[in-house]
Task: structure prediction
Amino acid sequence: MSAKILVTGAPGNVGTEVVKGLQAAGVDVRIGAYHTESARATFGEDADIVQFDFLKPETFHEAFNGIERVFLVRPPAISNVSRDVAPAVWAAVGAGIKQIVFLSIQGVEKNPIVPHHKIEKLILQTGVPYTFLRASFFMQNLSTTHRDEIRDRSEIVLPVGDAMTSFIDVRDIAEVAVQVLTEDGYENAKFTLTGAEALNYDQVAAKLTTTLSRPIQYTRPSLLQFVIQQLKQGKKFGYTLVVAGLYTITRFGNAKEVTGDVATILHREPITFDQFAHDYREVWT
Result:
């Protein structure tokens, strides 16, 4: 299958890996970037890069023109789906796209509060063939969002108690995304993408302790302590509530399920947490 594919959410954790995978496969890919200069620094001047901003409808035509398939990533700061996401989705439909591959989250079907739930419903309403990639928590959250607290203070500050999380490496998500974007047979499907094991954050801290050869502590803040800390760090209130909601899902055990979807699609086992920690260890040192 050959198609012009638009990737949003690049350069970001998953979007960047999806673009690289599509480029390596020789697929015609367009990058819809919020910060085009950053995208050019990442992907080079020869890449097809256009500005794409969910809040600027004037960017939609150039982004979707000639596109057959879209890899859709919700910007973390956007939580009002009907106001800030729906116009872009309907613009894509109007441009004649044939598939939307949406990066969703594990357990979304049980949590109508999170924006991903509403985006899935929106995509279903369009009638366009879809593929929902319901990913568990990214291992790379620890090397990006939580990098500084691990590197500078040797601690992990997350309000999930003893709950287990079936972490996944974004490189696995991206490889799955490339597969479902470039091969037939994945339309109108929902996949829950996890690693091969579930870990609690004491186990995560222990694995990082081993990898980094220094003690890493999991501090176990309450949900309220976490929210207050996020707001003090300058995070927006809406963003903080969404993040708190996601970690609440985890605290109640909704992120512990381990599935075989990655292995089924890629015909190999998912990347392990130990491998991830080894590959990214320099970001914490």
Notes: Residues 237-251 form the longest helix (15 residues). The beta strands are 5-8, 29-33, 48-51, 69-72, 99-105, 130-135, 155-156, 189-193, 217-218. The mean pLDDT is 94. The chain is about 40% helix and 15% strand.
